[in-house]
Amino acid sequence: MINKKIQYFVTLAECLSFTRAANEHGVSQTAISQYIAALEQRLGVKLFNRNPHSVSLSEAGKVYYQRVTHIIQYYEDTVAKTLAAAKAYRGYVKVGIGIYEYYNTDAFFSLLLDRYPDIKTDIYQYPYDELTRRLKSGELDLIVAIDLCKESFAKKEIRTKHLFSSGNCIVADQSIAKKYPQGDAAAMLREEYLITNCENEGPSSMEMLRNLLVDEVGFFPERTTRTNSINAQLMMVRAKQGVAIVPDFIKEIYAPEFVRIPCSRPPYEYELMSLSENENPAVDTVMKLSEELEK
Question: Domain 88-165+269-294, what architecture?
Fold first, then answer.
């Protein structure tokens, strides 16, 4: 069993704050400091650079963090697979989905769970950048995501199966939309905040959104505000704090209080993806199942 206190190091490495790490684990800052000092002494290296104003990982600390997180993940996977075997499961697969995709994958996951109840299936939700990182590291066996995620992989590095296609649309509250000529997305985007879930980097970056809007309306809005979920995004729209761009398969945007303006860009493809080198037999089963939805 892995020493649970190693999570003190992992949390500190991720938040770079002794106060936040202590709060996260419900212990004192002294306990965190003492564990890190003892760990550094045992290893004979400095893991963190510390001064009165900041904490950062040393080069040795970065290596230790990368390796330790892989060990923890491998251990947790081992425990999950052991428990699955004990409960007579014949396979185990971890699937990641993006912040939008759960709205349009009900049929797929219903078919998977009904057809293969003997394959233990864990499902996690992450932003696209995190999805691709976790797929690359082996933390996830499969992801359901927009096809832009494929750009993070070499062509031979990944296998894909098409699930569905969808365009985007600009969504506004009725009271906001009526201030502008009908269907004039450009007019709205010049005056209103753009509410977006885009990330700093990765397949769904602000740069990607910038390019999309320049193609769509000829400019990028001067004012933007960020959310990290479709629920928060639409809450801001309902609160009349701006307009949003979302996939048109989101069911809530068809409510009477919203106005939708379809984007002219061709639909995006949403796909099931796995690493080509993944030898988990349950992955092949899930990939083949997606073919049935296309028939």
Answer: 3-Layer(aba) Sandwich (3.40)
Please give the structure tokens belonging to residue 14: 């991720």
Topology of domain 6-67 in CATH is Arc Repressor Mutant, subunit A (1.10.10)
- pTM reported for the whole predicted model: 0.71
Calpha distance 161→290 (Å, rounded): 7
Nearest to 223 by CA among 195, 186, 181: 195
Of 152, 154, 194, the residue nearest 170 (C-alpha): 194
Angle between helices 6-15 and 59-86 (to 10 degrees): 120
pLDDT band at 2 (very low <50, low <70, confident <90, very high): low
Please provide residue 8's backbone torsions phi and psi, each rounded to the nearest 5 degrees: -60, -45
Q: What's the burial of 264, exposed, middle or buried (CB within 10 Å: 0-12/13-18/19+)?
A: exposed
CA pair distance 150, 293, nearest whole angstrom? 21
pLDDT tens string 73-106: 777 777 777 776 666 567 889 999 998 998 888 8
CATH 3.40.190.10 residue ranges of the chain are 88-165+269-294, 168-265
Q: Which fold has domain 168-265?
A: D-Maltodextrin-Binding Protein; domain 2 (3.40.190)
